[in-house]
Amino acid sequence: MTAITTPGNSPQNRTSTEIVRAGEPSDQAAPTGQKPRRTVNSARRAAAGKAKVKPEKPKLMTPVEYAQHVLSDERKAKLHKTDHLSGRCIFYAGGDYQYASESTRGKMEYIVKHGGTLAPTFDPEVVTYIITDTTARPTLRALGLKSLTEIPQHIPTVKWSWAISVVSRAQKAADHVPNQILQREDTLINFDFMHAAFAERIDAGSGWQKITSGRAKGGAALQRLKKEEDKGKSKSDVGEGGPSNGDLSIISCPGTVVPSTHDNPSVDASEKIDPSGSLDPPGDEKSNDPLAEFYAEAKAEQDAGDTHNRDKDETEDEASPVKAKPAKRGWTCDKKEPQLPTKECANQDVVDALEQLMELHKAKSSEDDRWRVFSYGKCIRALKNHPKRIKSLSQARAIRGVGEKTAMKIMEIIETGGLKRIQYENTEDVEATKIFQGIYGVGRNTAFAWYANGCRTLDDIKMCKGGIKVSAVQEIGIKFYDDINTRIPRAEVQEIFDRIKSVALDMDPKLFIEVMGSFRRGKADCGDIDVLITRDTADGKTHAGFLSKLLDELHELDILTEDLSVPDDYSDLELCYRGLCMLPGLPGARRRRIDILCVPWECRGGALLYYTGDDIFNRAMRMKANVLGYSLNQRGLYAGVVRDPKDRRVKLHGGSIIASETEEEIFKVLGVPWQEPHERVRG
């Protein structure tokens, strides 16, 4: 048979120029109508070419920047679809730490899409709603405020579900939902409070006080519901086809869609708005507020800090603090705290367990753990002062500074002798990083970085396991780890200070030298030794340059042994030295941490107040000064301070010092009763 071949595919008919090696490019064009031959390498190149075309990542923007971007004319016109949120100026807080997340961007676009006015920054004169998807602290940070009480009462703080409900409600109306359903929902009550983000602001805004329909009063509707319930009827007269007695889902369910006050223009013109922004309708205000009695009760419970039910078998002496509204607490620094009892604490086992749990939280780096440490500190202080053994949950809960969860932990300790939470929190990373943070010069971040590099013990740190780097100061901290982390008996502090004071006064008799910190507060032992040095300038001389000479002399006497941090310029009047010291000539003497601080003579009062503490007392003093329009730091009390209204932590003008030479004058200006150092213990 004759071999029949296709001319185009026959090897005999292919010239040498037509034979191209796989993977090599060819200058010859493919015949018309014939697809180019694909090889393995060409397929790979094509795939690689496609892989290189990646979608461009969105530009990083802060929430403020992205809000401004959304509000640009071009972007706004592109997004706008409906007017369901028109008439509302909304500030959105998504809890973003630095850059706007994808969720935050989407929700900002949603607000603009449905006709809302998006506020990039919080301006109480313009904003009508605050929407938040986070807790109080991040929300306040975004607002530039310090407390929820600083938010004007006429501005509600609501959750994102509020925006969804408003849009859904408007869409229902557009889709011709039966009028009797909308009418029934209008009659009951406006719904802003159902989406309240924070319990203490549940009554913020005027929506819950106002009747959304001009044809029915919410208060009267609720009264009719109650009357029908008393009569035992199964139906309400709220409207035709209205809900039964037990069907209160329209009021209680946050998912129910009820109109906003902005949706209905038929508000009685005789209603007026008070300076706080709330509506004040004529006549009896309570009759128009169907939830007035419930708000009063909720407020009382909120103020008392206890919204949980009590056991029915509680005795009278264990009565719930909710029954009587507590007196205003005022500032922590204004009231002298009772001193710790000298006899054994009645709840020492509880104190020990909570202190152990507090130390575990100290080793962690999150913001929540920092606040837990603060809360446990207040609770432990209250328990140490409590004169009786705690026997019930209600007794524990009644102690100031003890919350519901802490009270449950206290009862677990009392009933079982232990606390499971300690085992839960005491993980390997916490245990290791807690040890590392005992090294001088090591903070949380460094400790967790060392753990991430495989270090688990001090020996691992000494061997620089995982390639970690240890500074010279940290090496000193490792070498004297046990000494530095051992409390110093009061007698030893006194003896070391007496020797330093004697040397200093021999060099300059006009020096003012004082020991500060927990020693000055009367503690039985101290973590370190704090010494303050200054000099009376009446003779025209100062202590400039004195610290260098003193340090040299103390090193010669073997009182100072190692330097941890030395000043750059000894001629300054404000200096800080950190090092290790010991009692010379004493066998087995431990190295002790010491700080020597030099301050200008006119600032000695502010420095004494600041470095005496304790921390909670100092924080209360600074906060009160801030609220009164002053600023308090280690140099003294300043007046005429100008702060940024959007972030009061930012000073636009530092002001001028008005009290600093004595502690007494600072107390007097702030209206704080004088308290000796041992009376300032709060934590």
From TrEMBL:
Give one Pfam family.
Answer: DNA_pol_B_thumb
Keyword terms, alphabetized: DNA damage, DNA repair, DNA replication, DNA synthesis, DNA-directed DNA polymerase, Lyase, Nucleotidyltransferase, Nucleus, Transferase
Q: Where is this region: Disordered?
A: 1-57, 215-339
Location in or out of the cell: Nucleus
**What is its cofactor?**
Mn(2+)
EC numbers:
2.7.7.7
Q: Does the keyword RNA-binding apply?
A: no
Name by which UniProt lists this protein: DNA polymerase
